[in-house]
Write a structure and sequence with these properties.
This is GIPC3 protein. The protein has 320 residues and is an alpha+beta fold. It is built from six helices and 13 strands. The strands form three sheets. Strands 1, 2, 3, 4, 6, 9, 10 and 11 form an eight-stranded mixed sheet that branches. The protein is globular.
């Protein structure tokens, strides 16, 4: 596997005019008051440049200037000459389909981005002999839901063709491209028992050293974490990306507990959603206020009351 000589995002000092700071050419500085030091010229905004490769093999490219996951995929697609819809998901610092290294809403400034693109399409027939299929679903933030975990001993575990990292493209020929992970999980839960259905899956394109692997993701305390104390780029659905300190140990643990609750109640895992809920719980004085706060910003999820109460307990009771 190729490895780049330089890794991660790098802050580079740019031309002040190119970065949107500094005064317009020809406009004089206002005179400083007598006896006071002249104001310092504004510091140029650093350019954050990240290095990336296609996970199955490619030269190294550099990208910058993105605010959210969709823009990130567009930048990667542009430098490699592919369509953004070809990208299923990205991992950080590994070319393998490793769900513990999945790119979420934060990227460390030293992280190297690997983009996993569409590979072969396959169809499997499944008979739902029990309520739970044994799948945990997540999505890439850009319209593709994919399998993040397969439970040992489950219905899906017995179907060798289904693998962690496979994108779910259709259920019974009904396309789900553009659906969020919780919508897909709900569709799968509502399928009737004892009636066969068809899943159309798209697997990530594999390098030669990955062919034949059927990767599984087991629970790990470090899943989805960004190293504490390090500056990260926080991607946002709305507004500019922001440089922030990495989450504290308390915030990491609370987000892990909430992510576990999301899996048990909804059949999804989403570290960024869990972090958002932790932030909401920290600023809510009680369960009722947290329910209203979540409904105002995440109403599409329709969280049940008992779930909100458990989120409150997971975040606030350990702190107390």
């Amino acid at each position: 596997m190729r490895r780049a000589g330089r890794r991660g995002g790098q802050a580079q000092e740019g031309n002040p005019m190119e970065n949107g700071v500094g005064q317009e050419l020809g406009t004089p500085e206002p005179p400083a008051a007598e006896g006071t030091p002249a104001p310092r010229p504004p510091r140029a905004r650093p350019r954050l440049v990240f290095h990336t490769q296609l996970a199955h093999g490619s030269p190294t490219a550099s990208i910058e200037g993105f605010t959210n996951v969709k823009e990130l995929y567009a930048k990667i697609a542009e430098v490699f000459g592919i369509s953004p819809t070809e990208i299923l998901f990205c991992t950080l610092n590994t070319h393998k389909v490793d769900m513990q290294k999945l790119l979420g809403g934060q990227i460390g400034l030293e992280d190297f981005i690997f983009a996993h693109v569409r590979g072969e399409t396959k169809e499997v027939e499944v008979t739902k002999t029990e309520d739970a299929l044994g799948l945990t679903i997540t999505d890439n933030g850009a319209g593709y839901a994919f399998i993040k975990r397969i439970k040992e001993g489950s219905i899906i575990n017995r179907i060798q063709a289904v693998c962690v990292g496979d994108s779910i493209e259709a259920i019974n020929d009904h396309t789900i491209v553009g659906c969020r992970h919780y919508e897909v999980a709900r569709m799968l839960r509502e399928l009737p028992r004892a009636q066969p259905f068809t899943l159309r899956l798209v697997q990530p394109r594999k390098a030669f050293d990955m062919i034949g692997q059927r990767t599984r993701s087991s629970k790990s305390p470090g899943e989805g974490r960004v190293a504490s104390g390090k500056e990260t780029l926080r991607l946002r659905a709305q507004g500019p990306a922001m440089l922030e300190e990495g989450p504290s140990a308390f915030e990491e643990e609370a987000a892990r507990r909430v992510d576990d609750l999301l899996e048990s109640y909804m059949g999804i895992r989403d570290s960024e959603l869990a972090s958002t809920m932790v932030e909401a719980a920290k600023t809510s004085p009680g369960v009722a206020q947290l329910a209203r706060g979540l409904d105002s910003v995440l109403g599409e999820f329709a969280f049940p009351q008992e779930f909100v109460a458990e989120v409150w307990a997971a975040v606030c009771q350990p702190k107390e």
